[in-house]
Automatic annotation (TrEMBL), chains A, B:
Residues 39-58 bind DNA. SUPFAM superfamilies: Homeodomain-like (SSF46689), Tetracyclin repressor-like, C-terminal domain (SSF48498). This is CerR family C-terminal domain-containing protein. It comes from the Bacteria. Residues 16-76 form the HTH tetR-type domain. The lineage of its organism: Bacteria, Pseudomonadati, Pseudomonadota, Alphaproteobacteria, Sphingomonadales. It holds the Pfam family TetR_N. It comes from Qipengyuania soli. One of its GO terms (molecular function) is DNA-binding transcription factor activity.
Amino acid sequence: MAQTEPASRGAYAKSADTRRAILDAAIVAFGESGLDGASTRTIAAAAGVNQPALNYHFGSKDALYVECARAIVERFAAGTASASGPAIALLGSGERVDPDLALVRLRQLMDALVDTLVANEDAAIWAGFVAREMNAPGDAFAILYDSLWQPGTELAARLIAAARGFADPGDDERLDALMLISNLIAFTNGRRVSKSIMKWQDIGPEQLVAVRRSISRQVDALVAQGN
Amino acid sequence: MAQTEPASRGAYAKSADTRRAILDAAIVAFGESGLDGASTRTIAAAAGVNQPALNYHFGSKDALYVECARAIVERFAAGTASASGPAIALLGSGERVDPDLALVRLRQLMDALVDTLVANEDAAIWAGFVAREMNAPGDAFAILYDSLWQPGTELAARLIAAARGFADPGDDERLDALMLISNLIAFTNGRRVSKSIMKWQDIGPEQLVAVRRSISRQVDALVAQGN
DNA sequence: GTCTATAGTCGGATAGAC
DNA sequence: GTCTATCCGACTATAGAC
């Protein structure tokens, strides 16, 4: 491999491997300790490179942080694409949506979220990153809001509306969507606490079944009560 | 005022006012920026004292941080005492608990939580503090878990169990309690996001009604479905 | 009890050899 | 492209005057 990329874009004929190693280490460090808590030296050590390598590849610590946000969004989207895709297709068809089918899609979406966020240990790291940025918005807030929260809650709200037989979501559907999604936070950001409360050693297949059941009951209730 | 306190305990015949000012400023700073993100200089400036005053009154930055956790627990407990008191009294009576009354107490508890956490702007600060500590446990984790999460979820779980006609809570009730409480996080840690999603300028009386209604529906569903 | 001054450490970013 | 060496600023904590 003489030159990994023939400079397909202006930037980065640089070592993609080093870049990736830094990014992976940075996501973990920032997710656990935050922008201020994680030092470039710690990240460099974890990535197996020297400290100035971060500046060389990303320009600055802040720029690296923003790049981490982008990577998190990408990985999250990849994990949920199999469920969000069909849901978007259903809602975008223009025709009147069958409430029962909307309910099926909503269930699939929630199951995919459980798989991506609760079953995956890495997601607790992502969740830490995202939660910090929501509390104290910085350079990464817009990325996370525009690519994660806004489309995520809007999709859920539209599915809830469709399952209730409405053409478009209103305030009630958006509120319910927000709360439905926030239930997952108990097992991402609140992973440690929830494991202690439930006396779970770890969150394996059996625990996931229980979580899915509890969420499933909420979805039922959401739609059954209509409004 | 010659000597605010006659040294009732061994420690702190020191200025209680200065101590309080530092504590208030520290809670805000740590809540917004975390232990590493908030500097003693910033806190001192916000409290209107000089930087070494923090060390004088609290010993170290870490000790001040732990003291903030204690203060948050106290203030939270004070805000919810009017609802948690009757609930604890009901459950502690030893006799078989009337399911309908348990449901009433559960509603009161959730309303008190909404008032304390959602209606109160300060609570977003507390929530930031607590959320960081849950993600990356430090010296304050035990305080917050033992005095906040454990008793809070256990109380909710016992009320849910009683409302379902059970003597004691099981895994299902604890799971449901965790998720019910995590709904509030959408409006504490997720305050900014939720306001944007809902297109709310701020969270006033009308918005609180909507939030309470949505939570109330969940409480209904929780108990109606039994298990 | 509160202040100023400062010691000692660690952070991010840059310069320049290879 | 990757390394070592280093600058400079910001931080916490301590010493000592008042």
